[in-house]
Amino acid sequence: MLDLKNAGLTELLHDFYTLTGLKLCIFDTDFKECASTPIKLYPFCARMRENPEFERRCHSCDAAHMQICRRTRKPLLYRCHAGLTEYLAPLYYEGVIVAFICIGQATNGRDAEFHTIAAYAAQFGIGEEECRSLYDMQIHYAPDEIKAACNILDACISHIYHQRMLEVRNLDTAQQIEKYINDNIAWDLSIEHLCAHFSVSRAELYQIFHTSFNSSVADYIRSKRIAMAEQMIRTTAMQISEIAANVGFYDYNYFSKVFHRKFGCSPREYRKNLESSEEEADEKIIFSGFVQKSLLPVRFFCYPSGEGTTYRPFLRVRTSGLKGAPK
């Protein structure tokens, strides 16, 4: 059961709204809304949800995107069934997804967006004039403002996790299985072993994986192992064969084959490509020069842009004692 009574969490959610003006919702893993701040719905959604069919579509849309988020373990920025922008991200406890946090019901104020929303609202008996009135009650956000809010929320999520602001009294069976797999990725995770450990039948285990992870048991565990292996290749200097064994692949050739299928290259080639990319990034910090007008030595950082290479000063070095340098 999810415990959302942590005072720090409540304050953080309200601070996010104070800063951005965007509403936040938290959903449990049954896709039920269990908290929202500071309001439940903006006027447009409150009016539209008076229609039972619209309400049903909202819940269906929420559940569909949370299923994607749970399966991919990645945040989603998307438009809901009615055309409003939403951002959804998973919340973790002990490495297990236990909830989802959502920026909801954002609009950009552009005519194209309004006409799309109005056309959809008309299906539920809401005329264009009423729709315009409800739409104009929204605080509109430019795309770069939405992106900035999403980045701030990601930082908040990291803070929530590391400060252990989210408490779970007890994990459901699917969450217990996910945690067990995370904690025992190097060991026997056969169907027989999982059934015995969790006292469930094969049919029950298959149903849990299908419902909670939208995956077969074997595919889920294999994907988890490959994801952990890729992370270890990126973040450690361990031998590839050691990494394979540490995530439960004891046949190196099979590991390499599965890895290649996922990333398009062997694990060794993947690490070599990462090292080459890091070397290229280091080489982009390439020269020191003088800014002509001020005669100040400046180190430049160059990076690729859409139109070519851009150079920007990022560090000034000692200027005292240089001929022509300002006092």
Description:
It is a single chain. The chain is globular and about 65 Å long. The chain is built from 13 helices and ten strands. A five-stranded antiparallel β-sheet has the order 3-2-6-5-4, sandwiched between helices. Strands 8-9-10 form a three-stranded antiparallel β-sheet, with no helix packed on it. The protein has a two-stranded antiparallel sheet with strand order 1-7. The protein is an alpha+beta fold and 327 residues long.
Spell out the key features of this protein.
globular; 3-stranded antiparallel sheet; disordered C terminus; 5-stranded antiparallel sheet; about 325 residues; alpha+beta
Secondary-structure map:
Elements: E1 2-3, H1 7-20, E2 24-28, E3 33-37, H2 43-48, H3 52-72, E4 76-79, E5 85-93, E6 96-106, H4 111-122, H5 128-136, H6 143-162, E7 167-168, H7 173-183, H8 191-198, H9 202-213, H10 217-235, H11 240-246, H12 252-263, H13 267-283, E8 287-291, E9 296-305, E10 308-316
Antiparallel strand pairs: 1-7, 2-3, 2-6, 4-5, 5-6, 8-9, 9-10
Helix pairs in contact: 1-6, 4-5
Question: Which residues form runs of ≥5 with pLDDT under 50?
Answer: 285-327
Which percent range fits the helix content? 40-55%
Largest sheet: 5 strands, antiparallel
Class from helix and strand fractions: alpha+beta
Global mean pLDDT: 83
Number of continuous helical runs: 13
Strand portion: 15-25%
The total beta strand count reads 10
Q: What gap, in angstroms, lies between the N and C termini?
A: 65 Å
Shape: globular
- What Rg, in angstroms, do the CA atoms define? 25 Å
Order of helices and strands: EHEEHHEEEHHHEHHHHHHHEEE
**Neighbour order of strands in the largest sheet:** 3-2-6-5-4
